[in-house]
Amino acid sequence: MILSIDCQWCGTSVSLPSSGYMTVRTTNKYQNWEQSIQLPISQQGESFLMYQFHSHHELLHNLQILLEHNMHQEWVHFSDTKQDQSVPLQIEHLYERLSHPELVTIIEEGHFTSYLQPIVHMDTGEVYGYEALLRSRDGSVSPGELFSFAKRAGLHSMLDQKAREEAVKAKAELIPYGQKCFINFLPSTIYVPEHCLSHTFNIVKKYNVDPSDLIFEVVETEKIHSIDHLHNIFSTYKASGMHVALDDVGSGYSTLEVLSLLKPDFVKIDRDYIQDCQKDQSKQSFLESVQQTASELNITLLAEGIETTEEYQWLRESGIHLGQGYFIGKPSPQPIESFILP
């Protein structure tokens, strides 16, 4: 049996034999570590150790021993002979993939789909567009669990890329021309925007989607460490005729101070500021400051997480442009037919 393991950077398939050799690259900090780790060594060099394994179960056991000695970040190669070597993988990533092959299959083979949650004009109730949200086809795993595993297994770049493709496909098949599609992306998976986003741009052309109907939305923004890098990503999207959005303004990384630096086309207001906004003066003051900044920078505001009539009515009267939330419509496989204003 040969198990397919994907390269953590670009998704290139790597064949992992059912038996063979595992080569561990070592560094100075692990001098004499082979003496404390009770694994039989097949071959040893100045900066590597080679171990033989006879099954994936044995390989998983060996990896667990290495992890117990804090070898999480070290790199390993595989081969069915002592000469050939595979693309390198980190020990912790390989351990996760061998431990959960069913999740690897979902990601590799794209066993997921996009659910659509409506976004409406607050003043008229007319549908503006939809946010495409990842769902496994059989419902066996939640999106949060799938992305959490993908990160632990070094597959988050592949999952993010394939999720974007599924969202573009949903736009082409289900969302009419002129209505927008908000598509999430992880900035941490985009190392060189011009290269890493080329796959997405090719998918947009493949499905003949109008780039101006696509809005790429940053998620996990609190973990972004470089405004310059995010600005470069935004610029790459915009240069291809697409729009960009910042999520959760008011929390994490998306503070009002960075809006003028990044100049997104859209800003989503964090749910914490939407809940019971009609009766909370501090939230109302914050929303007013966001509106002022957005007006100065020509940014469209979107209130997410609207769950009550009272929230919707206050936000509409305050001049918020767009709205999203369970009160308007839950994520579903098909677009909603209409939304009736309260």
How would you describe this protein?
This protein has 342 residues and is an alpha/beta fold. 37% of the residues lie in helices and 23% in strands. It has helices at residues 33-36, 56-68, 91-99, 101-109, 143-152, 156-174, 193-196, 198-206, 227-239, 256-262, 271-274, 281-297, 309-318; strands spanning 2-6, 13-17, 20-25, 43-44, 48-53, 75-79, 89-90, 112-121, 127-136, 180-185, 214-218, 243-249, 266-269, 300-303, 322-324. An 8-stranded mixed barrel has the order 8-9-10-11-12-13-14-15. Helix 10 links the parallel strand 12 and strand 13 (266-269). The longest helix is centred in the middle third of the chain and has 19 residues, at 156-174. It comes from Pontibacillus chungwhensis. This is EAL domain-containing protein. Residues 96-342 form the EAL domain.
